[in-house]
Write a structure and sequence with these properties.
768 residues; alpha+beta; 3-stranded antiparallel β-sheet; 13 strands; 62% helix; rod-shaped
Length: 768
């Protein structure tokens, strides 16, 4: 998962969680506000009519009880009270029908109240007919009033506001206390003119007195607001209330127990007048308290809605700020990470490779291009500093490796230089021995063989010098013809007799690169002779092309796969470290060729030949070529008369190779020693190269006159032999056909198979 996605998720999750929490809180507050609105609406529609119905029902109960007990209550007054109760009941029914469904508890209470009101007429008829008892009549009215009071109790019980819940309990307690006093009035009305109560009714009176006093003193007055508390204090200090309290105390203290019940004092006659005054004031106080409760509920609902509004506004602002902060932080982190990534990629792909290349080349490194440790304290900065430390350690390691490589190169170059001096001295000594013992044909052949091996040894030493970063000393001061250059390169190869040269004379090579080109071609020729059958030819041809001089070396070696050619060409175009050189110590020639090609600006390509072998194509740049001056062209020496093969031209050979008919004839023979009768002294055409003899005087070639330069020295068979041992040669003698015996042919085929196996073994060693 991308870092951007992780940061977005990291920002999105808390934002969504916060928004969800705000939504849940707002929904809860809105639900609470809706409940309060519904309670207030129900209280305004049902509560006030129900309170009126309670007061009218209590008054009808008292009047019915008084008429039942024989008190002077007229039928007109009773009907008038019953009509008032019916009017209040009808108003309650209409209000409850318009209120709609409420909670399960309130709906159940409403159904019970309506059922009680429906049974009210039946109980009235029973009361008028004196059916049943007065107690059953009082219980019906009391139960109906109790259902009405419990409706108020259930109306605000589900609210989550603690203040409103407590306030609603105070209102319900006031209704309960008023009911206790109304029950006192009913019980005293049941005493009738005889002022006598049963023991059970007297106990109910005592309980009602104690209950309403306890409710007012403990649960109503302490929790009333200041204004309503003062109002209750005025009611409690009025004459009517004081008369009520006095009558209650007298009934409790001055009653007389009789055989049939309890005889009440005469002061109860003052109860009706006092009750008429304080009951109206208590009912008004309860009504006002109910209205205040509904007003508080409506205000609390408005507060909740305002809280929701503020919550949404503040939360939206906070979410906006959080979102902006998260976006800015995410963009800042991503920007810093992007800058760090770009800088890291630049250092890894451009700066560090350039630094490594400069260190490998021995050039100084600009420290300003490398990242530095800034000492940052945040995480991204610490990662940047860690990367800077890694780069510093890597550069230090490459600097140390470059120093070690340079030191090893200097060491190897020094060893190669000193060894090369020894080899040059050995070549000089060999030349002196050749001059001193030139008359001994067998010894001269061995000396020539030693000379050829020493030249190969010098080439290997020059390879070490090239790979160590040194340069081949080039003593040439004049341009060299391409044909002479090919001859010089072929003379470096041990098996030079198999090389066939095809070159042109009109192009020469600049002196400063003669040794390098000659060494490059010698390495390719050496590979071609070693990786091809022993008796097969290796052809080297040179011709001008659009980009310069093309030199192609073609052998008859075994087939090589395309992947192997690709791997070998890769070696030619890369400078390997010493570890790769150590792993390919047996195939260093390609690396040497690659180094020389880079120094010359030449290109070398290996590919499959049309004959199934390998073809190496070297393109020498045109700026290294110069035209051959006609005045300096060498004259052609007259061909000697059919010289017989001599062991002086090569090292040890098989018996059949000494036969005259097996001598190789090439267009331009390789340099061989030549000794005229006066035995002119031997010298080297090129310092350190194969020894040749100078021809003192030869006729001019191609009719160029006396101004032509003398030809290059050539090796001539039997020139160092005594005249008595020389075989006469007939001019124009044609070599006889090969008359090899079957055994000789088998030996030649065995040599071919052995060379092929050697090539295959070396190729397998070269595989990774």
């Amino acid at each position: 998962m991308r870092l951007r996605t992780l940061l977005v998720l990291l920002a999105l999750i808390p934002t969504v969680a916060m928004a969800t929490q705000v939504a849940v809180t707002a929904q809860r507050l809105l639900a609470q506000s809706g409940h309060l609105r519904a309670d207030v609406a129900a209280g305004e529609r049902i509560g006030l009519p129900l309170h009126t119905l309670i007061a009218e029902t209590q008054a009808e109960r008292t009047m019915t009880a008084a008429r039942w007990a024989g008190s002077p209550v007229t039928e007109t007054a009773l009907r008038s009270q019953r009509a008032a109760t019916d009017t209040a009941a009808d108003a309650f029914r209409r209000a409850s029908a318009d209120a709609g469904p409420g909670t399960e508890e309130t709906d159940r209470r409403l159904r019970e109240i309506v059922k009680g009101l429906d049974d009210l007429d039946a109980h009235r008829e029973r009361a008028d007919a004196r059916i049943g008892s007065a107690d059953s009549m009082v219980v019906f009215y009391s139960d109906l009033v109790g259902q009405m009071i419990r409706y108020f109790q259930d109306g605000f019980s589900h609210t989550e506001d603690a203040g409103l819940t407590h306030e609603s309990r105070v209102v319900v307690t006031m209704f309960s206390a008023s009911e206790m006093m109304a029950q006192e009035d009913t019980i005293l009305a049941l005493a009738g003119p005889s002022r006598e109560l049963s023991t059970r009714r007297f106990a109910d009176f005592v309980n009602a007195v104690g209950a309403h006093r306890h409710l007012y003193d403990r649960w109503v007055v302490p929790f009333m607001p200041v204004e309503e508390g003062s109002r209750y204090a005025e009611i409690a200090g009025s004459d009517a209330w004081q008369a009520k309290t006095r009558i209650e105390n007298q009934v409790l203290s001055d009653h007389k127990d009789t055989d049939t019940g309890v005889k009440l004092p005469r002061e109860i006659k003052e109860w009706a007048a006092a009750h008429e005054k304080w009951s109206a004031e208590i009912d008004a106080l309860s009504t006002d308290r109910t209205r205040a409760l509904l007003a508080h509920g409506d205000a609390r609902a408005a507060e909740l809605e305002a809280e929701v509004t503020w919550l949404i506004a503040v939360s939206s602002g906070a979410l906006l700020l959080v979102t902006v902060a998260i976006v800015l932080t995410t963009r800042s982190v991503l920007r810093r990470l992007r800058v760090l990534h770009e800088r890291t990629v630049t250092v890894a792909e451009e700066t560090l490779p350039d630094v490594v290349a400069r260190l490998q080349q021995g050039r100084p490194v600009d420290a300003e291009t490398l990242p530095v440790v800034a000492g940052e304290q945040d995480e991204v900065g610490r990662v940047s500093d860690a990367f800077a430390r890694v780069v510093a350690v890597s550069v230090d390691g490459h600097r140390q490796l470059a120093a070690e490589r340079h030191g090893f190169g200097m060491f190897a170059a020094g060893i190669a230089s000193r060894t090369g001096n020894l080899v040059s001295r050995q070549l000089t000594l060999t030349e002196e021995l050749q001059d001193a013992f030139g008359g001994d044909e067998a010894l001269l052949a061995q000396l020539m063989r030693s000379d050829q091996l020493t030249v190969g040894m010098r080439r290997q030493i020059e390879n070490l010098l090239i790979l160590a970063g040194g340069e081949i000393p080039d003593p040439h001061t004049e341009p060299m013809r391409v044909a002479d250059l090919l001859r010089e390169a072929a003379a470096e190869v041990e098996d030079f007799r198999r090389i066939e040269r095809q070159a042109l004379d009109e192009i020469s090579v600049e002196p400063r690169v003669i040794s390098q080109i000659s060494h490059l071609l010698a390495e390719l020729l050496d590979n071609a002779t070693r990786f091809s059958p022993p008796r097969s030819k290796v052809v080297i041809r040179a011709e001008l092309v659009a980009d310069g001089l093309s030199v192609e070396i073609e052998d008859r070696g075994p087939r090589v796969t395309a992947a192997t050619y690709e791997e070998m060409n890769r070696r030619l175009h890369s400078a390997p470290p010493y570890s790769v050189l150590a792993e390919n110590a047996h195939r260093l020639g390609l690396f040497v060729v690659g180094h020389l090609a880079d120094q010359l600006g030449a290109t070398v390509t290996l590919r499959r030949s049309v004959y199934g072998g390998t073809s190496a194509v070297v393109i020498v740049p045109r700026d290294l070529l110069v035209p051959t001056e006609r005045g300096n062209e060498p004259v052609d020496a007259p061909a000697p008369a059919a010289p017989a093969p001599s062991p002086a031209v090569a090292g040890p050979r098989r018996a059949e190779e000494d036969r005259p008919e097996l001598v190789l004839h090439v267009a331009d023979p390789l340099p061989v020693r030549q000794a005229p009768a006066d035995r002119a002294p031997i010298h080297r055409a090129t310092p350190g190269r194969a020894p040749v003899r100078e021809v003192p005087a030869l006729p001019a070639a191609r009719g160029t006159g006396t101004g032509a330069r003398p030809p290059l020295p050539e090796r001539v068979p039997q020139t160092h032999m005594a005249e008595q041992l020389r075989e006469p040669r007939a001019t124009g003698t044609v070599p006889a056909p090969d008359a090899a015996t079957p055994q000789e042919v088998a030996d030649a085929w065995d040599d071919y198979e052995q060379g092929t196996r050697t090539v295959e073994i070396e190729l397998r060693q070269d595989q990774p």
